[in-house]
Amino acid sequence: MGMTLELSRLRKAYDQFDFGPVDLAVEDEVLAVLGPSGSGKTTLLSLIAGIATPNSGSIRLNGRNLVGLPLEERRVGMVFQEGALFPHMTARENIEYAATASDRADELATLLELEGVLDRKPPKLSGGERQRVALARTLATDPDVLLLDEPLSSLDAPIRKRLRDELHSLFKAIEIPVLYVTHDQRTATALGDRIAIVRDGFLEQEGSPSTVLTQPTNRFVARFTGNENLFEGTVTDRSGDGVIVQVGNIQFQTTAPDISASAVTVCIHPSRVEVEMPTLADGDRAANTVTGTVTRWLNEGSEYRVEIKVEAGALTLTANVRPPTFERLSLENNSGVQVLIPQEAIHLIPERQ
Amino acid sequence: MATGSHSNRSGTGTFGFDWLSVALVLGGVLLLYYVVPLVSLFLSVPAGEILARMNNPTVVDSATTSLLSASISTVIATLFGLPLAYWLARTDGAVTKVVLAVVVLPLVLPPTVGGIVLLTVFGPGSPLGEAAITAGFPLTRSLAGVVLAQTFVASPFVVVTAKAAFESVDQTLEYASRSLGKSRWTTARNVTLPLAGPGILAGITLAFARAIGEFGATMMLAYYPRTMPVQIWVAFIELGLDNAYPVAILLVLIAATALLILNTVATNPWE
Fold first, then answer.
1. Residues of chain B with C-beta less than 8 angstroms from the C-beta of A142
2. Does residue A87 belong to the interface with chain B, where contact is any CB pair within 8 Å?
3. Is residue B155 scored above 70 in pLDDT?
4. How many CB atoms sit inside 10 A of residue A63's CB?
5. Which domains occur in chain A, in start order?
6. Which CATH code fits B46-263?
7. Does the ipTM exceed 0.90?
8. Disruptive mutation site among A71, A80, A139 for chain B (greatest number of B CBs within 10 Å)
9. Helices (H), B193-244
10. I want to staple A177 with a disulfide (CB 3.0 to 4.6 A). Which of A26, A129, B7, B9 is the partner?
């Protein structure tokens, strides 16, 4: 049907916190709003839903300005953090309270696999069921926009993953703008068609998940999306296809196009750093190769986080190593390793900070 | 704490009691102080004699006046008190604090002073009182006077207790309801009031109990028609203590009923 939500110069001042001005446009897509707690994510949703009133700016839904309209006239659906189910009503009553048509409750109960728990009251529902009921209740109103405020944050890992998959398919099926607020980068990249990073009430970067992950525009975005390898560097050669950048006394060949600044932040995502046996020949791969020793490692479950002190320069690289590789190399502290950094894995931020 | 309990233990050995026993004895004495006089009241007069005197016109009249006036006062207190309670629960700031202080004022003001204050506005000497008398609806020495006195002292119970009840309803639930397209009124009816219901009922019960026992302000505003507390006073002064028993027992029973309501359907605010 083609809905567009447009925020323009939206600003809200609190005693201790200023939000905006923020400009943002969301089409029929999922925008994952990612940021630390206190960054203004919930304020953004409150402004759109009508719980908070902006000091200035506009919120337009298909051209209709929502600012000044009471909550109940906005047609903005909101799924609250803990579900906000009415505790004195059963799951069915919660959904039917909102439903615009009489058979809508059963339809949504089937869709969200809630048939078995419809007669229970919220205290008798599990965390995942509660969020599904909350979602069903919101969808029952056929909203023009769907807002979700960290609906998965209070759930245990297995249920969170399962519900995340369900949400992914559900979002594909509904054709309205969806704003999904989270502080979890994995949830944001998994669910978002686009990601918006917020900090201190401002939008830091907006783009596709892969763009935001691999090409952060500043150090904050880089760090918040799990990019731990941030080094001060200097561009030393601009003559080739990609510039050469020096970090300490190591030269890195990159595929980065010419960049006007000389003082840059060199950004290498740990997942792109490859660790190999020290004896392995370089071959003809277009990768920067350095040698180093393992100083620390942590088993994070699906991967190992390995810190490597690079011999040539006074810098420590962090690499994500998959368990098979970790075991094949029998890594431990003080293991000597060779580190391969593909040219295209090096991203330059034109600032040092 | 450690040294304290150590010396207690040696104390137990020597004197046969510790601080817990002391606390139990102190508390027990206080409980007896509450219960013994009540039991004594019921034992003072044979039950048959009490029942016979319940038919006495003065007893029946005062009971009728009290029940009627306390009911009207409670309805007025609820009607005017609930919106104020909701506003107080959902607003912060200096104004809220001042308004709350004004609401609590009748609770801390001695009832006789409350009566005097009311007389300056509604009494026969005041313009409003004068006009009301001319219109044939006197605001003193009338049921209206009783209601005015009772509402003044009892309505704060509705406001203060209902305020706490409204505050216990998470405001997110109201936002959720409204974001589902429901108006403020629909939200209040279906979400806020049902959830705050037991607390509100507690406030109404307390207000009724306070209204039916009101004496000081009522004496000042409306000696006639006699309410039960006034009737107890008159019976005691004119005919002696024995004659005050039947109405007193009625009032004890009403108070017990109020307690029963508080501990069953309502939320006891002091629990």
1. none
2. yes
3. yes
4. 7
5. 5-223 (3.40.50.300), 227-349 (2.40.50.100)
6. 1.10.3720.10
7. no
8. A71
9. 193-213, 216-221, 228-239
10. A26
